[in-house]
Specification:
With 239 residues, the protein is an alpha/beta fold. The chain folds into two domains: 96 residues, Ribonuclease Z/Hydroxyacylglutathione hydrolase-like (Metallo-beta-lactamase, Chain A, 4-Layer Sandwich), CATH 3.60.15; 134 residues, Ribonuclease Z/Hydroxyacylglutathione hydrolase-like (Metallo-beta-lactamase, Chain A, 4-Layer Sandwich), CATH 3.60.15.10. The strands form three sheets. It has a six-stranded mixed beta sheet with strand order 1-2-3-4-5-6, with helices on one face. Strands 7-8-9-10-13-14 form a six-stranded mixed beta sheet. The N and C termini lie far apart (38 Å). The model has no long low-confidence stretch (mean pLDDT 98). Zinc ion (ZN) binds next to loops.
Length: 239
C-alpha cells in the first residue's frame, strides 16, 4: 500500500491510497476530479472508494464526477450524510472501515466542522487529517468549539509517534512563521523550517509530516491546556 500525493486547486492535497498488487485505489478528499482522473488513467488504476474527511467544497468537489465515471463508493461521516455529495457508506467515531485490502479506523474530530473525521490506516501508519491537523498548524474553528478542536488534536497526538500525517493543504511554510514567532528557541523547529524551505523551493510537498515532529514543533500540539490553545488559535486567525 502506498500513498500518491495529488495537488488540487490552489493549495489542496488529495491522496490516492494505492494497492499495487490489485491495482486498486481509494482517494481521500478529491477537491476536483480532473487531476485524479488524469492520474488513474495514466497509471491504469481502478478507483474504488472516495473517503471524505469533511463536507467543505475543496474536499468533496470531485465526488460527483468521479462517481459518474468510475462508480466509486463514497465514505463519509454519518451526521454529515446530508452535505457530503453522493455518500454511500456512513461511518462513525471509532469504527473500523474495511473494504478489499483497505482498512482504517475512523475518528470523529470536530472543531473545524462539526462532522470532521480522519482516517487512520493503522496497518500502514498513516493518517489523513483533512483540515484538523496541518503540518505546523491546525484548522480554523468554524463549527465547533475550542475545546472540541483541542480534544480532537489530542486524539491524533496520542497515536504512535511514527505516524505519517497527510493533511488537506500545503500551508506548512506559512504555518512555520507563526510557530517560530511563538517558539523562537526551538532548535528542532528551526531545523524543520530549513527542510521545509528546501522542499518548497524544489516544488516538493512538505507532506507527509511525522507525528513526532509535529509534537515537537507544532505550537498547537505543544499547547499544554485549553486556555493556551484558544489564545494561540485566536492569534493565528489574525496572523
Ligand atoms: Zn475545510
Ligand atoms: Fe480545506
Amino acid at each position: 500500500m502506498r500513498v500518491e500525493i495529488i495537488s488540487c486547486l490552489q493549495d489542496n492535497y488529495s491522496y490516492l491510497i494505492i494497492d499495487d498488487k490489485n491495482n486498486i485505489a481509494c482517494v481521500v478528499d478529491p477537491s476536483e476530479a480532473k487531476p485524479i482522473i488524469e492520474f488513474v488513467k495514466k497509471n491504469k488504476i481502478n478507483l474504488k472508494y472516495i473517503l471524505n474527511t469533511h463536507h467543505h467544497y475543496d474536499h468533496i468537489g470531485g465526488n460527483k464526477e468521479l462517481k459518474e465515471l468510475y462508480n466509486v463508493t463514497v465514505v463519509g461521516y454519518k451526521n454529515d450524510a446530508h452535505r457530503i455529495p453522493e455518500i454511500d457508506i456512513l461511518v462513525e467515531d471509532n469504527q473500523i472501515w474495511k473494504a478489499l485490502n483497505f482498512e482504517a479506523k475512523v475518528f470523529h474530530i470536530p472543531g473545524h466542522t462539526s462532522g470532521h473525521i480522519c482516517f487512520y490506516f493503522f496497518n500502514e501508519n498513516f493518517i489523513f487529517t483533512g483540515d484538523t491537523l496541518f503540518s505546523l498548524g491546525c484548522g480554523r474553528i468554524f463549527e465547533g468549539t475550542y475545546q472540541e478542536m483541542f480534544e480532537s488534536l489530542n486524539k491524533i497526538k496520542n497515536l504512535p509517534e511514527n505516524t505519517n500525517i497527510y493533511c488537506g493543504h500545503e500551508y506548512t511554510l506559512q504555518n512555520s512563521k507563526f510557530c517560530i514567532k511563538h517558539d523562537p528557541n526551538n532548535i528542532r523547529l528551526k531545523n524543520k523550517i530549513v527542510e521545509i524551505k528546501k522542499k518548497i523551493k524544489k516544488n516538493i510537498p512538505t507532506v507527509p509530516s511525522i507525528l513526532k515532529d509535529e509534537i515537537d514543533c507544532n505550537i498547537f500540539l505543544k499547547a499544554k491546556d485549553l486556555d493556551t490553545f484558544s489564545k494561540l488559535r485566536d492569534l493565528k486567525d489574525n496572523f
